[in-house]
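Kindly inspect this chain:
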Amino acid sequence: MPKVDVYNIKGKKVSDIELNDEVFGIKPNETIVHSVLVNYMANQRQGTGNTQTRAEARGGGRKPWRQKGTGRARQGSIRAPHWVGGGVALGPKPRDFSYTLNKKEKRLAIKSVLSSKVLESNLVVLDKLSFEEIKTKQMVEALGNLKIEDKTLIVLPEPNKNVQRSSKNIPGVKTSLVNTINVYDLLKHKKLILTVDSVKNLEEVYLNA
């Protein structure tokens, strides 16, 4: 089992914790991680792009000139795609880009990224994380004590308004909950901060998953 140090918000080591191999110690599956990431990004697409076809463009109901005898090329409508103001041929229409993946694939991807964080020494475990008031300065000081300067994802075991609001205005820092983490956020942020309770909750959720 991988063992990591546990710190307090002052940056002092207070203990260590053994992480479960099945959640934090597996061999990362890059193929699954890529598949789940692509799925997540596809599901975020709005799919609202829209262009008018020649049937939807206003006007063009009458043949602009007779078929023969004018010396010009034959035309059937001024709203054909090659006319200025005409309809768009094969343009985008509203559509749903989302699709589903197997739940086991999503969980394997999460475990793969968590294991990568451990292997790359980008996982920081805190004994607890709580503030008495909403104050950005407190979170900035905590990150400074932990010597964290990279983009950081803080995963909490349960909602904590003081912590979440205190980190909201810090560039590159995002808070999430154990039950709402996703591969995109884990990959986007280099550092991952967990509390001891978050580690236990993750192991409960993803053990044997």
Notes: Strands lie at 3-7, 13-18, 123-126, 152-156, 173-177, 191-195. The first strand starts at residue 3 and ends at 7. The helical segments are 21-24, 30-44, 103-119, 136-145, 161-167, 183-188, 196-206.
